[in-house]
From TrEMBL:
GO terms for molecular function: structural constituent of ribosome. Gene3D superfamilies: 1.10.287.310. Keywords: Ribonucleoprotein, Ribosomal protein. InterPro entries: Ribosomal_protein_uL29, Ribosomal_uL29, Ribosomal_uL29_CS, Ribosomal_uL29_sf. The keyword GTP-binding does not apply. GO terms for biological process: translation. This is Large ribosomal subunit protein uL29. PROSITE patterns: RIBOSOMAL_L29. HAMAP family: Ribosomal_uL29.
Length: 66
């Protein structure tokens, strides 16, 4: 997911997407711990997507206040 896709989403959609990614991140951590993780690059990808969503959500909240 890139930043331009995230920018078009509403605050509620961002919250839903963040929850989905956090759940996926938990599952990936669990798979890594048990040795079942096949796509190790997905861990990094999910972590960065979470950071992107949090950053853009924070920016949108700041714009709404101003």
């Amino acid at each position: 997911m890139n930043a331009s896709e995230i920018l078009t989403k509403t605050q509620d959609e961002l919250t839903d997407e963040l929850a989905k990614l956090k759940k996926e991140q938990f599952n990936l951590r669990f798979q890594r711990a048990t040795g079942q993780l096949e796509n190790t690059a997905r861990v990094r990808q999910v972590r960065r997507d979470i950071a992107r969503i949090k950053t853009i959500a924070r920016q949108k909240a700041a714009e709404a206040k101003a």
